[in-house]
Every structure is written in structure tokens, then in C-alpha cells.
Predict the structure of Carnitine transport protein.
Amino acid sequence: MLSTGVDIEGRPPTLVKTAAAAEKVAGSRTDIAHDEVASLSSGTLGDNTHRKLKSRHIQLIGIGGTIGTAFYVQIGKGLLNGGPASLFLAFTIWCTFILAITMCMAEMVTYLPISSPFIRFAGRYVDEAFGFAAGWNFFIFEAAMVPFELTACNLIIHYWSDAVPVGGIIAITLVIYGLVNLLAVECYGETEFWAALGKFLLIVGLLIFTFIVMVGGNPLGDRFGFRYWKDPGAFTDLYYTGSLGRWLGFLQCLIQASFTIAGPDYVAMAAGEAENPRVVMPRAFNAVFYRLTAFFVLGSLAVGILVPYNDAEMALAFSSGAPGAAASPYVVAMNRLRIRVLPDIVNAMVLTAAFSAGNSYVYCASRSLYGLALEGKAPKALLKCTRSGVPIYCVMIVLCFGLLAFLQVSNSAAVVLSWFISLMTASQLINYSVTCTSYLRWYAALKAQGVSRDKLPYKGLFQPYAGWYGLCGCFVMTFVGGYTVFLPGQWSLPTFFFSYTMIGVCPVLFVVWKIVKKTKFHKADEIDLHKNLDEVEEYQANYVPTPSRNRFEWVLDWLFG
């Protein structure tokens, strides 16, 4: 469905950023060692990160950052609110918006694969003030996800025992995040690859489990099939009875989907540290989108098959803030079918998923802050990198955000989770709206400056209509997310605050930067499409593939190449 417009593989693919480095490689290409090539920076002036992430790393980073506890546990709340049909329809519909966003992001990022690309594009293609607001919104979003997953890790571990103190779990997990992210980027890539691969296998296993038990392969011998779509039914009422109640139930499922489903932004954030990005990134965007769509659509179908929307055990688990996977529809179904051991295995894998997602958020948040510093929208001191190309101060600041997870020491973990979900849903939707807006300006610039999209490394379909579709959907959902507080008897100050804070903060950031810096809206024929492009193309022209260290790694590179 998505296409790459240019055969870039035909070009001699190295890792060069500066002109001096380019001359060195050009003068003795055949003699240069792979370790020496890999130590060079990522391809644009001033950027000291290193291109050491392979295709397999980036594909699994995209999956790992998206699939966390929301997929395995929080999805059950959507089932309670709307019923199986509403949940399935909402997740399917939202995937069409993610497709539109993916095509917008992929087309821009593969053309110019730099660090923190899409938040920097907002300033280059729209307005520097727009880029400032967008960049800080994305940073806050990613940084807030870190304590969210830390809170989730605590809940999951307490599924087995309350013996370990909350503070101890948070502290240990934060230390591990620090160790993984402060080492070389390939260490993060390998860690995330294996953790995300575990998620991949768990999802496949749960889908197979769903099929087997629904046709009678369970201790009860119960062939329940789609029974729960008939009794109690495919839709349920929320807040009101009748058509309005069913509509609100569907809307709540759509809000759940808009928080749960992501993907293209995590792939894009790795562009500045990807090997051979003009070849690797188009494949990664396509692979991640199609895999995630299959997982989310089939996953939403599976939970509606396994558990009725009025299941008392699942409702009690959510209302009481039950720990770990106790509220997971899969675990609820296993308990009802008297299947032992599997719930503990699922909980262990969900713990891996939560840890992996949090690890990805530390990476993405630190790189977004680094990108802001590169553009002069954050202190220049944040540009400091280790010899391994890790922006050390950025990582440390993000780890400090993780300390917010200690809020659950004095509040219910379930309450803290709901706060973070409300805050992050709005931020994520603002981020996607920014991406689509940036793309539409970029598309206009290509047209105004006579650049053919057929020559791009990646050409999405249905543009610019897909961009407008994604923008309209995300913009509307940004304001819909906290609608429940406006219903009679549903007012909640924390819900209102966390649902609409970023909607108010972003315009303030935009206005302040515009006044201070006196920025101007970029006209289509004046947008700079060539900044950093020469360095990227120089890197591509001199790229030397890093050989696999052993046969096993070669097999992995081939499978995910």
C-alpha cells in the first residue's frame, strides 16, 4: 500500500557527518575499519549522536514503544465502557488515522532522517514558534510516560506480593533505565529488541490462545465462540440509555484507542541514529504500521470474544485498582476457564512490556530534548554527548521525571495512572496534529518549489488528503478526550486539569516564543528543504554496512532487515 519512490539501495551505501570525515572515507574507503566508521556521528552538523541502530532495532523499537500495559490491561476498560463491537470498531477506525499520520511522517523523515525529525520539521516548515511549542509538548508527553510505566511496573509486581515496597520497585527500575540509556545507543537497541520481541511473542500467543479456547480447547470444554456478542450484547450503554448511551460508549472506546495506538513517532525518533536510514526507515515505517494494526485490531476483537462487557470480576478489578494483570481480559478469561499457571506467565510478560515501554520513553524523551537543543529551543548545555554518542544531560533530566512515580506512595496507583493517561492522551493527539500540519506545509513547499514527490525515498498514498484526514481526526479528538467532565454529575477537577492542560499550555508556548523571537510563518516558496540534506546524502553515498558479529546475529538481521 505504501511505496518507496527511489531505488536508494543502488547507491553505494557510511557514517559520515563532516566534510573532513567524508574526505577521510573517500580517500581510503576500502581500508577504513567498520568500528572507525561506526564511531562517526549521525550525519548532520552539530549532532554528536551515532548511527548504530540497525533495521531490526528500529522495527522493534517502534513496536516496543507502542505496546505497553494499555494493550494488555487498560483495553479491558474500553470493553466495560462500550462493549465488544464498539471496542473493535473504535480500534479499527483509529488505525486509519494512524495510517494517515504514518504516511505523513514517513515521507518527511525518510527524505531528511535527522535527530528528533518531526518536532524539528514543525519549526522549519510552519513557524519556529510552532516548532517550539510542538517540541516541548512532545518532550512532556514522552517524559510523562516514564512515570506512567513505572507506576504500571509497581502494580504488576504487586500481583504476586506486597512484600516489596513501592519506593523500592520504582528506584530499582529507574536505575536500570539509567544504565541502559546512558550506555552506547546499540546497548539500548539490543535491550529493546529482545524486550519488544517478547511482547511480539506474547501477543501472538494470546491471539492463538483466544482461538483455541473459543472453539472448546479449554478445561471446561466450553465452545463459547462469539457468545458474548449476543449475550449480554455487542454494545453497551454509558451514562445514558438508548442510542446516546451507546454512542458515548463507542466514543469512550475511541478515546481509549487514541491513547493506546501509536507507532510512527517512535520509529521517527530513531532516524538520527539509524544505519543507512534512506533504506532502513521506509521498511521500518511500513513494517511497524502493518504489524501494529494487526495486533491492535485483532487484540480488540480477542478481548471482546473472551470476556463479556458486564464481567463482574473485571469490573471489580478496575474499580478496586487490582494489581498487575488481574484486570487484564486475558487473565480474567483464564481464571473463568480454570486455566492455571498461564495468568502468572502473562503477568510476567506484561511486566516485560511495561519495562520495555518505559525504556523507549526514556530514549524518545531524551532525544526530543536533544533535538530542541540542536534547534536552539533548549539550553545548549544539553548538547553534551558521551564518547558513545549519548546525550547524557538529556537522559538524566528525563530520569528525574521518573521520580513523579513516587506520587503513588501517597495515592492509589490506579488514580495516578488515570492522571497520566489523561495528560498523555491530549499531548499525543497534539503531537499528531502537529505532524500532519507540518506535512501539509512541506507538501505545499514541494509543489511550490517544483520538487517531484516521485523522486522521494518514500511516497505515501492519497496525499494531501490523508494529511487533512489525520489532522482533522486528531484535532477533534484532542478536545473530546475529557468530555465526561461536562456531563451532569460527572465533574472532576483532576480529570479536567489533566485532560486540557496541554491544550492550554501549547498556545501559550507558541505565543511566548513568537513574541520573544519575532518569528514569521514560512511561505511555501521560502521553506528551506535543503538544510542538513547534503550531509545526509553524503552519509548515504559513503555508507559501509556493519557486518554481523556472528551467524545468529546475521539471521536476526535477515529476518528483520
